[in-house]
Specification:
The chain is globular, with a radius of gyration of 23 Å. Strands 13-14-17-18-24-20-21 form a seven-stranded antiparallel beta sheet. With 502 residues, the protein is an alpha+beta fold. The protein folds into two domains: 311 residues, Nitrilase/N-carbamoyl-D-aminoacid amidohydrolase (4-Layer Sandwich); 166 residues. 50% of the residues are buried. Helix 2 runs parallel beside helix 4. 15% of the residues lie in helices and 31% in strands. Strand 22 and strand 23 form a beta hairpin. It is built from seven helices and 24 strands. Bound molecules: 2-acetamido-2-deoxy-beta-D-glucopyranose (NAG) (4 copies).
């Protein structure tokens, strides 16, 4: 658990920052929330019961908002997906929790004008939280929109139901509404919006985009708001179920922020039996603060100062050519023998690292992954493998991947390579991992024993596409990966399937 990165000087920065119009920096907050779940979700409860439950959660969020804004000077706070009513509903049982959320173009401050769009107590309360504490508040709630037979796609119950992010500015005004585009399979309570909404808004501390959880795997809207709308920061409510080796919240989200060159404010739900933990504030050049806690059932507030417009900073990372180095070298040939192994339903081509130092290449289809490494010692009780995957992932959504990974196998039996494992004793003093990627969207991650991240000073991403050690400090690597997304090979739409993220 890492909670020690709270900037001691936030209050000072906030005072300085408030004295000018456009802010060079701002204080970001995210709250990992242990959601108070409804007693039952399989059958509908009354509207009163639903509101009672939602108010219990908002009571907790309110404490976090006050602490962040009043005591720590936060400008914006993000709360998690499903953070106000939980998960696992049917269409009917979520209905009492939904409100009609208008288009922000209507210019509405629910705290001032609560009845303008019918009975909307949750929006009123969130708006008042923002207004009373002078802070932008980001939350995830459910929207309902009536429809009828004049719309051929109108569901039989006569309404659309959307998983929705809302943002209230520091005056309490609704400034953004985003309907989650890439629903995860178990979210049967919600409808897919017809089109991907590209929601952005300007603030004195930069331009913001917003999307939700599983959207992060997609081109629309995640990549579009960054590449085409050039946002500075992303607001990211999520309900993310960690699955090692490659899909753990903190490593994956921080890698995405790094690769896309934006700030990412990621707020996860907290429920250890569901493996939901891992929130953070990530800048393009560094992880600012993160929280990963499988020990307690408590929520956690995180705060950090961020640059409002990171693209203008001298520290902004240069673009990486993820193909350059790997395609300039000949595959390393050694006495290696390849074997197959599964990671999250994808069959990788692995090769075992046989000595304490070496050069290896693993290839699959168009992707060859090169690894040069040096371990402090080659332990007999731990086995590492280099793996390559180039193909369409087809479980819980269809998306095309190219991945190079170095990982510790669960046991010394090669059949366990790719299975989750929590700790490692082998230390790597040197490493360089690269691949012949056919995409510029490659998310680089390194996870150490105990699911810890590596401080930035210990590695670098070279412009020619190598993930390299740089300090010589021995690191207990559990897994490192270059996780590439090849969007042009995706089938038309993400989203259908069966699985675990929400
Ligand atoms: C859930 O059940 C418990 C115990 O019966 C009760 O105290 C609590 O108020 C209920 N929660 C909600 C939101 O109805
Ligand atoms: C239902 O259909 C009528 C006529 O086609 C239309 O005028 C009306 O706005 C529709 N209502 C809703 C809720 O979509
Ligand atoms: C975590 O989520 C599960 C599944 O929804 C639930 O049964 C359990 O009570 C939750 N744990 C806590 C501490 O809320
Ligand atoms: C790995 O390759 C590099 C250069 O390509 C070479 O200097 C080094 O000796 C090789 N290491 C091993 C263990 O073969």
């Amino acid at each position: 658990m890492i909670i020690s990165h709270f900037p001691k000087c936030v209050a000072v920065f906030a005072l300085l920052a408030l004295s000018v119009g456009a802010l060079d920096t701002f204080i970001a907050a995210v709250y990992e929330h242990a959601v108070i779940l409804p007693n039952r979700t399989e059958t509908p409860v009354s509207k009163e019961e639903a509101l009672l439950l939602m108010n219990k959660n908002i009571d907790v969020l309110e404490k976090a908002v006050k602490l962040a804004a009043k005591q720590q000077g936060a400008h914006i706070i993000v709360t998690p997906e499903d953070g106000i009513y939980g998960w696992i509903f049917t269409r009917e049982s979520i209905y009492p929790y939904l409100e009609d959320i208008p288009d922000p173009g209507v210019n509405w401050i629910p705290c001032r004008d609560p009845w303008r769009f019918g009975n909307t107590p949750v929006q009123q309360r969130l708006s008042c939280l923002a207004k009373d504490n002078s802070v932008y508040v980001v939350a995830n709630i459910g929207d309902k929109k009536p429809c009828n037979a004049s719309d051929s796609q109108c569901p039989p119950d006569g309404r659309y139901q959307y998983n929705t992010d809302v943002v209230f500015d520091s005056q309490g005004k609704l400034v953004a509404r985003y309907h989650k585009y890439n629903l995860f399979a178990p979210e049967i309570q919600f409808d897919f919006p017809k089109d991907s909404e590209l929601v952005t808004f300007d603030t004195p501390f930069g331009k913001f985009g917003i999307f939700t959880c599983f959207d992060i795997f997609s081109h629309d809207p995640a990549v579009v708001v960054v590449d085409e709308f050039q946002v500075d920061s992303i607001l990211y409510p999520t309900a993310w179920y960690n699955t090692l080796p490659l899909l753990s919240a903190v490593p994956f989200h921080s890698a995405w922020a790094k690769a896309m060159g934006v700030n990412l404010l990621a707020a996860n739900t907290h429920n250890t039996s569901m493996h939901m933990t891992g929130s953070g504030i990530y800048a393009p050049e560094a992880v600012k603060v993160y929280h990963y806690d499988m020990e307690t059932e408590s929520g956690q507030l995180l705060l950090s100062e961020l640059k409002s417009r990171p693209r203008r900073e001298p520290t902004y990372p240069a673009a990486v050519d993820w193909h350059a180095y790997a395609s300039s070298v000949k595959p390393f040939s050694s006495e290696q023998s390849d074997f197959p192994g599964m990671i999250y339903f994808d069959e990788f081509t692995f090769t075992k690292l046989k000595r304490n130092t070496g050069n290896y290449t693993a290839c699959q289809k168009d992707l060859c992954c090169h690894l040069t490494y040096k371990m402090s010692e080659k332990r007999t009780d731990e086995v590492y493998a280099l793996g390559a995957f180039d193909g369409l992932h087809t479980v819980e959504g269809q998306y095309y991947l190219q991945i190079c990974t170095l990982l510790k196998c669960q046991t010394t039996d090669l059949e366990t390579c790719g299975e989750p494992v929590g700790s490692a004793f082998t230390k790597f003093e040197d490493f360089s991992l690269s691949g012949t990627f056919g995409t510029r969207y490659v998310f680089p991650q390194i996870i150490l024993s105990g699911s810890q991240l590596v401080p930035e000073r210990h590695y670098e991403i070279s412009r020619d596409g190598r993930l390299r050690s740089r300090s010589g400090a021995p690191l207990p690597v559990l897994v490192m990966a270059l996780y590439g997304r090849v969007f042009e090979k995706d089938p038309p739409r993400l989203g259908q399937g069966s699985g675990k993220f929400q």
